[in-house]
Amino acid sequence: MGVLSAMAKQEAPYDAEVAQRHADNMLLLSQYMRAHLYAEGTSNADMPGNTRSLPIIWEDWDGYLEREAEFDAAAATMAEAAGDGLQSLQGAMGTLGGSCRACHQDYRAKDF
User: Fold this and answer.
1) Is 24 within 8 Å of 17 (Cβ atoms)?
2) Distance CA 34, CA 37 (A)
3) 35-56: string of b/e by CB count within 10 Å (b at 16+)?
4) Residue 35 confidence class, pLDDT cut points 50, 70, 90
5) Fewer CB under 10 Å: which end of the chain, C or N?
6) Which pLDDT tens digit goes with each residue over 39-85?
7) pTM of the model
8) Residues near 110 by beta carbon (within 8 Å), at least 6 away in sequence
C-alpha cells in the first residue's frame, strides 16, 4: 500500500510495472480468507500489547465482513487501474485507501 500511496501522491515517481506488481499483491491479499485470522478471544482486551484488534470485530461480525468485501472490490479495481497511468492509479487509490481506513477506524486500535 505504501508504494501505491507514494506514487499516487507523487512522492515517488510513477512506474507502471512497479505499480502493477504492488496492486497485484493487494489483489492477492484480498483473496486470502482473512476472517479466519480473527479467532474469538484474540482482541486487544483479551491480549493487551499483542494485537490491535478491537473486541467490536466479534460483536459486529457482519459489519467486519462488509468492510472486508469493500476492500476486496477496491483491490480488484486497483489491480485493473494501477498500470494504466498515474491518473488511473490516483483514481483507484481513493477507494482502496478509503476501504482500509474505514476498517481500521472501526476495528483496529491505534496503539497496542
Assistant:
1) no
2) 5
3) eeeeeeebbbeeeeeebebbbe
4) confident
5) C
6) 999 999 999 999 999 999 999 999 999 999 999 999 999 999 999 99
7) 0.91
8) 52
Task: Name the residue type at position 18.
Answer: V
Taking the CB of residue 32, how many other CB atoms lie within 10 A of it?
10
Q: Which residue do the cell numbers 476492500 mark? A: 71
Which three cell numbers, joined as nine digits, stand for 70?
469493500
C-alpha cell read off for 40: 474469538
Write the secondary structure of the chain as one string of H (helix), E (strand) and C (coil).
CHHHHHHHCCCCCCCHHHHHHHHHHHHHHHCCCHHHHCCCCCCCCCCCCCCCECCHHHHCHHHHHHHHHHHHHHHHHHHHHHHHCHHHHHHHHHHHHHHHHHHHHHHECCCC
